Amino acid sequence: MTPLLLGCAAFAGALAGFLALSLAMDRHHEDAYGRGTTPGRRRPWLRAAGTALLLLSLGASLGLQGATQGWVLWFGVLTAAALQVVGIVGYAPRQAARIGLCAALLAVASLLPGLLAGSDPGHPQSTRSGSLRMISSHSV
Amino acid sequence: MKEGFRQSMAWLHTWSGLLVGWVLFLVFSAGTAAYYRDEITFWMQPELHAASRTPAPQADALAHGVDFLQRRGPESPRWFITLPTEREPTVRVFWSGPPPPPAAPGEQRRRTRFENAALDPASGEVASAARATRGGEFIYRLHFDLHYIPTLWARWIVGFCAMFMLVAIVSGIVTHKRIFKDFFTFRPKKGQRSWLDAHNATAVLALPYHLMITYTGLVTLMFMYMPWGPQVAYKDHGGIDAFFADVFPSGGPRDAKASGRHAALAPLAPMLARARAHWDGAPAGRIVVSHPNDAGATVSISRQEGRGLSQNQPSMLFDGTSGALLSTAGDAPRAAAETRGVLYGLHIARFSDPLLRALFFVAGLAGCLMVATGLLLWAVKERQTYAKVLKRGGRIGFGLRLVDGLNLGNIAGVPIAFGAYFWANRLVPVGIDERAAVEIRWFFIAWGAALLAGLARPTRRMWQLQLGIGALLFAGLPLLNALTTATHLGVSLRTGLWPVAGFDLVALALGLGLGAAAWITGRVRHKAKPAAAARAVEAAP
Fold first, then answer.
1. In this complex, do B209 and A79 lie within 8 Å of one another by their Cβ atoms?
2. Is the pLDDT of residue B160 over 70?
3. Region B244-263: what's the mean pLDDT?
4. A97 reaches B (C-beta below 8 A)
5. Do A96 and A19 touch, CB atoms closer than 8 A?
6. Are B294 and B423 in the same domain?
């Protein structure tokens, strides 16, 4: 799997994951869909999807940089993505869902080529990201 | 405790942050810039932009370094040769002059003089006479040595501030009641509320970075702040110097003495090959030759950094006349040393690739904003206690006025200082005496002027003016580079001269950011009165 695709998956996954988590919160849900609306029954699904996408981002980070530096990278990616989410829900809350969906699709799509190419035995990471992808596709 | 725990932590957070905030802002800005210290140095030496960037085999680069030093410093007690890396394409050689004669009584002791040069790794030529500049090294040193004051004092000051920073971070976490509820919250255009949101967002979202960088920053100088452990353990074994020689062997043996007998230096290429083979082919980083051309010569080779998180690199020590291997160090690091190495490595992030370094830079900028918004928040809150006084036509107190002035002179002034430093690099004539020091003087002249102006008139108009100057200085850097070199953005982007292109683009982005801040300040100034009235009406019921 190319570093570019993995980096893309790490960033897009973190962005989409945080956007899903923010939409599961009453205040940001109101900003996005109007006063008085609540996530209601969708809340657990949004939370699960957000968590799964953040884990997908972790998997991609570890795949990109290895087990030690991958964690450092993941924290950096999380910070950068969360700052963007603050900007989105602060200034363009109505776009949050759309951006989140695009980012989620991008994150999953950029992992697909590596998964379709098969799990070569020297690359245990690809199988791990595979299981993560399954979780996320169930919940989205 | 009469007040609750949280209130007392809020008090601690406010005052520990305010007390050291201005120094922290400088330290954070310089530290953030220092992630790109090599690139900044390269940008500031435009004479090197055209030099060949074709990599040469390490053995050739080393041979050129040794040839050069044999010509220029054969009598020197110590040579340092740093082999080229991806980020630093030249061979850097560094050698100390002969030790100074003992000073006469009453005369100040003269320091050993150090000289350095950059060589083209392929040809061995001195990389065309680059202008004298401290480049990114000044910014790196500014981060923990400050400037114009003794190093030891500076490190104590910075360490003191870092300790307060750690206190402020931990007490800030305790006092932040809604850390998860407000996780993504930023409410623009709401006065104090917006400042608090911005402070929370930059602090909480980059919290792993802030905690890590403050704690590991203290670790980098831990033997200075807390030397007692090694002092006791090595009391009867040669003192703290012996401890350092044991723990950090890569500098070569400290107690090695010159024998005084001349002996030819053995060729270094076989030693290099042996060391690299020992490290499974990993490149060598720094070579230290102690007492070259003496019978007691030693050669220490350490592995190039950039492979693991840890700052500690294994090294090998060779006899300088026979070429025999004397010892190896650091192959199986002890747990304590490795822990410190990893913490140190995390702080200076020399291991990281471009993506990771960019993320460290972003988190560092978030840290600058966290300190800045925290300082501003104090002033905004304090100003409210004066609301009634001001309405009656009274004046604000001295403390608030001082904080306002210091905030202005630092938050808007430090960017001006950095901008002035980079502009001075291109505008100060090449070849004048003490040129590197003149560039640095411009940094402090600009900052001093901004501070004085800020203290004299801490008004919104002055904020707008100073942020605007900072914006023009930074956004103008790509233009300045285009006017003073042949490597403007059009060229550097096309030919892949990434350090120069990256510097120009980041400077432009920072300039735009400062410009946006100036613009918003101006807009709020025009609206200030109606908005304040509206807020008063809202708050009334």
1. yes
2. yes
3. 69
4. no
5. yes
6. no
Closest-CA distance of chain A to residue B285, Å: 21
Give the mean pLDDT of B284-310: 85
Distance CA B43, CA B478 (A): 11
* Domain shared by B368 and B459, yes or no: yes
Look at chain B and report how many structural domains it folds into. Answer: 2
Structure tokens at A33: 């869909």
Closest CB to A86 among B184, B209, B362? B184
pLDDT average, residue stretch B210-221: 92
Residue contact B359–A90, C-beta within 8 A: no
Range of the domain at B78: 53-133+235-347
pLDDT-derived band at A131, boundaries 50, 70, 90: very low
Three-state secondary-structure class, residue B285: strand
- Note whether A72 contacts B309, CB cutoff 8 Å: yes
How many Å apart are CA A135 and CA A107, to the nearest integer? 13
Q: Which of B181, B183, B209 sits opposite A75 (nearest CB)?
A: B209
Residue B229 lies in a domain: no
Task: Please check whether residues B380 and B501 belong to one and the same domain.
Answer: yes
Q: How many residues can be counted in chain A? A: 140
Query: In sequence order, which residues have a C-beta less than 8 Å from that of residue B236 and are 6 or more positions away?
Result: none
Give residue B114's pLDDT.
75
What is the Cα–Cα distance from B514 to B454, expressed in whole angstroms? 17
Residues B258 and B401 in one domain: no
Tokens, residue B159? 């360490």
Which residue does chain A place closest to B181, by CA atoms? A25
Residues B423, B519 within the same domain: yes
ipTM of the complex: 0.82
Q: Does A90 contact B186 at a Cβ distance shorter than 8 Å?
A: yes
In tens, the pLDDT along B106-132 reads 555 555 677 778 888 888 888 767 788
Among A22, A76, A78, beta carbon nearest to B184:
A22
User: What band does A133 get if pLDDT is binned at 50, 70 and 90?
Assistant: very low
Q: Do B208 and A79 touch (CB under 8 A)?
A: yes
Residue B401 lies in a domain: yes
Q: Which residue has the tokens 């004066």?
A: B386
B433–chain A nearest CA distance, Å: 43
Q: Which residues pair with residue B92 across a beta bridge?
A: B82, B118
The chain B residues in contact with chain A (CB within 8 A) are 181, 183-188, 201-202, 205-206, 208-209, 308-309, 346, 351-353, 355-356, 359-360, 362-363, 366
Instruction: Using CB atoms, pick whichever of B308, B346, B363 lies closest to residue A79.
Output: B363
Tell me, what's the pLDDT at B283? 87
Q: Based on the domain organization, do B101 and B247 belong to the same domain?
A: yes
Name which of B469, B471, B481 is nearest B427 in CA terms: B481
Structural domain contains residue B266? yes
**From CA B149, how far away is CA A131, in angstroms rounded?**
57
B393: left (phi over 0), alpha (psi -120 to 50) or beta: left
Say if A15 is an interface residue toward chain B (CB within 8 Å): no
For residues A98 and A104, give the distance between their C-alpha atoms in angstroms, rounded to a whole number. 10
State the smallest CA–CA distance between residue B70 and chain A in angstroms: 41
Residue B218 lies in a domain: no
* Residues B370 and B393 grouped into a single domain: yes
Determine, for residues B184 and A69 on separate chains, whether the beta-carbon distance falls below 8 Å: no
Q: Say how far apart CA B95 and CA B354 lie, in whole Å.
A: 31
Q: Does A90 touch chain B (CB under 8 A)?
A: yes
pLDDT in tens, B32-54: 999 999 899 989 988 888 765 66
Query: Are residues B308 and B430 part of one domain?
Result: no
